[in-house]
Amino acid sequence: MLPYLAYKYVKDQKEKNKRDMQDSLANMTVNLSKSILPDMVVLRIPGVSAKLTDDGDEQPSDEYIPGTLAIVEKATGIFIEWTPQGEDECGWVLADDDSAHTIPALSPNADSSSSLLPPHASSASSHAAPLSPHSRLRFSVDVNDLSSFKNVEPKKGGKGGHPCIRLIAKDGTNYVPLYFLTQSTKDFIDVLQRYCTLRRSAREHQLVLVVDEKAEALAQSLSTLDQNGDMMGRFMHNPYATAMTGLSKITTFVQDQVIPAILDSDAVSQEEKIRAMRELRSETDDTRLKISRDADFEVVTQLELPPRPDIYRESPVTASVWSSFKQSDGSFDPAKSHHLMMNVFRGGVDADLRKEAWKYLLGYYEWSKTPAENEKKRAKLEKDYVRMKGQWQSISDDQESRFAKYAVRKGLVEKDVARTDRTMKFFAGDDNPNLVMLHNVLMTYCMYDFDLGYVQGMSDFCSPLLYVMNNESDAFWCFVGFMERVHANFEKDQTAIKVQLNQLRDILMIVNPKLANYLESHDSDDMYFCFRWLIVWFKREFAFEDTCKLWEVLWTCQPCPNFLLLICAATLDRQTETIIENKFGLTEILKHVNDLSMHHDLDEMLTSAEAIFHQLSASQDKLPMHICEHLALGDKSAVGTPSADEDDE
């Protein structure tokens, strides 16, 4: 036995030494090629600008960040790189038009091995130019890692706009949109086609796919061999789940893990949480759709829906229009309440009107009462706020040491206040009194509703209210009104979120069965990637001003109480071809959805969602009963209108 073990040891060592030698030789070859072959720029387009809206901006920004787009041949591959203006492309070698001659730039000593930074970014030279404030936007992506890109050309005769591209990687990463201010994207696409095969999507004309011809040929071959087996296998395994698009796979959430993971983690961490939660799936989940062999049910494969109507947004409600709905005593005319709500739904309200309008929309002020009566109510509630605020302020450090639940909630509040909307001027800087007010409002809410206390994400709802009201007590009672609408989102068992995700899936099955089936076949029909949209009402997806506009639209409960679900469906509807054509799985969908943040068009999203509502409303006699229930179709009492009864609830 011993001689054999010795022989085995010597053999393994020889094989290891051989592998090490091969790896060393490969590394030597790569390093040698880097030292001999400088990076060569085959295309360099100045005047290509990024346009990025900071999530702390109070207004959407129209500022373009100038830069240079290049396609660079490196020893390690072909790279598409964008660099902000002011960062010289040290280490690049420019190629002339026929690529037969090269024009050396600065010394190519820069390490070009990084796939994340331009060649000069990691140079060891002590003479490197200082980085611009927009350096974080620069990128370098290997063509082999590219899955597709959006190529948006402005319509001929249209107003304004510039050609734009947005690169999408195979892992779902969306790079910053690039605008060609002085020329079209033709030169870029022509040169890119030298290195990869491009194919325009047959379903979405703006989407250009980067085709891996070998992989596609293999996939087609496998598909031909097994085109019937997969469907039949699924049907034999579970005929009911296969007949429907998919069943709920959502299980119990863990409050202190799921919400932080979805709100703050990257896509990979989010996927790990999702997969862990799926393993905890309960067979007795009361919110899951159950199908029995003896149950009567209608299998809806695909409905013929009418075309979606063209919808247009209107101007915000002004102070004069708002006042026109008041009666002589200052209260609102109940006969005109629906008209007022539709005006707000169609255009939101002027920024200067929000301080008054939000108090009504959130139930702090009552529509049926006069200004004097509402002011009297306000004075009483302010005293209640001061009383509750004094309760937590009176807790000493000694008491807190024996009050674990309070200490935990206080720590969560302090942690979130320190990072909520800090890029906004209103909350920026140290020793900002507005941060103290935000802290006070959230801590006082813990006293108002100690059963719920504080959960991460609630500060997202509170900060815009405080910004608009600029008053602790007013912001607090508006926050209370808002939390009455979203309270269930933060409850420990997360039943409300589960129900909303199920309802969203149901709606998607009707309005976009193609995407619904794709998500089901890619283990993503639990809709977890929409969790962040629902729990904080798209707060992380829009600039601050757009968030305010979206929320006041949703507070009207027009044209249905669950309009938020239609906004989610409209958003996914626009991403259908990108998700399917790129063959995204769960991780890639999560990354793609997260990268859409700050790149949504709010008015476009609202018009699309309303068009879907009218499309479904026109077909309600054909729709499954549960879809009508989700959207309150045919139930006029479910549509929110200002009334004394509603305010008193």
TrEMBL record:
Keyword Magnesium included in the entry's annotation: no
Keyword field: Acetylation, Cytoplasm, GTPase activation, Phosphoprotein
Single GO molecular function: GTPase activator activity
Segments forming domain Rab-GAP TBC: 348-558
Sequence segments annotated as region (Disordered): 104-131
InterPro entries hit by this protein: Rab-GAP-TBC_dom, Rab-GAP_TBC_sf, SGSM1/2_RBD
Gene3D superfamilies (UniProt xref): putative rabgap domain of human tbc1 domain family member 14 like domains, Ypt/Rab-GAP domain of gyp1p, domain 3
Residue stretches of biased makeup (Low complexity): 112-131
GO cellular component term, pick one: cytoplasm
Name this protein carries in UniProt: TBC1 domain family member 15
Subunit structure: Interacts with non-phosphorylated form of RAB8A; phosphorylation of RAB8A at 'Thr-72' disrupts this interaction. Interacts with ARMC12.
Protein function: Acts as a GTPase activating protein for RAB7A. Does not act on RAB4, RAB5 or RAB6.
Pfam families membership: PH_RBD, RabGAP-TBC
SUPFAM superfamilies given in the database record: Ypt/Rab-GAP domain of gyp1p
Compartments (UniProt record): Cytoplasm
